[in-house]
Design a protein that fits this description.
The protein has 192 residues and is mainly α. 61% of the residues lie in helices and 4% in strands. About 3% of the residues have low confidence.
């Protein structure tokens, strides 16, 4: 339940001393003050505190950006190793560095774009499934969204490829939900 900061005296705060590293300075001793810092998120509006889910636009921004970033980093690392393996004997250092950077940039861009598209489709389908199911927020929504994302992403490759990609998308979303639940149980203060 929401409580204004001035009424908050529960155990959900931790004491913070900004001068804890300055213990040796005796002239600062009178300035020591303790502050109560909350350990849970604070909201500007009461309505925001009641929301349990990100909005559709927040979901799209989060999933698309996160997927693109992870895909670009993964593709960049993969492309860098590919460029290192493709080096030929007798090449100068400039040519090798150019090959490695070009290969890493090309793979990172390609994989990042594909992952960003997957994140965009997943976020859209997750919001659609959430609204179609009467705003029920459980583990089935991401699994259905992952299934639909795989099917839509590989639909042009044929029905068999779409079915396999849909199954992989549903399994990946289910594994992510299970992993999140395990993390919540083992680390209850983690904001995931």
């Amino acid at each position: 339940m929401y409580s204004p900061p001035e009424n908050r005296t529960d155990s959900k705060t931790r004491q913070y001393n900004p001068y804890q590293d300055l213990e040796s300075y005796s002239h600062l001793q009178p300035l020591k003050t303790l502050y109560d810092l909350p350990t849970s998120p604070e909201f500007l509006c009461y309505e925001d505190a009641l929301k349990k889910r990100r909005s559709t636009t927040e979901n799209i921004t989060f999933y698309t950006g996160t997927s693109y970033l992870l895909g670009a980093v993964t593709g960049g690392i993969t492309g860098t190793f590919s460029g290192l393996r493709a080096a030929e004997a007798g090449e100068s250092l400039k040519v090798r560095m150019s090959r490695v950077l070009s290969s890493g940039g090309h793979s990172g861009r390609k994989f990042g774009n594909n992952m960003g598209i997957l994140g965009l489709i997943f976020a859209g389908l997750d919001s659609v499934v959430y609204n179609l199911r009467g705003e029920v927020d459980d583990g089935l929504n991401p699994v259905l969204a992952g299934l639909g994302t795989g099917v839509l992403f590989k639909a042009a490759a044929g029905p068999r490829s779409a079915a396999v990609a849909g199954a992989l998308g549903g399994l990946a979303a289910g594994a992510a939900i299970l992993g999140r639940n395990v993390m919540k149980r083992s680390m209850p203060n983690l904001p995931i």
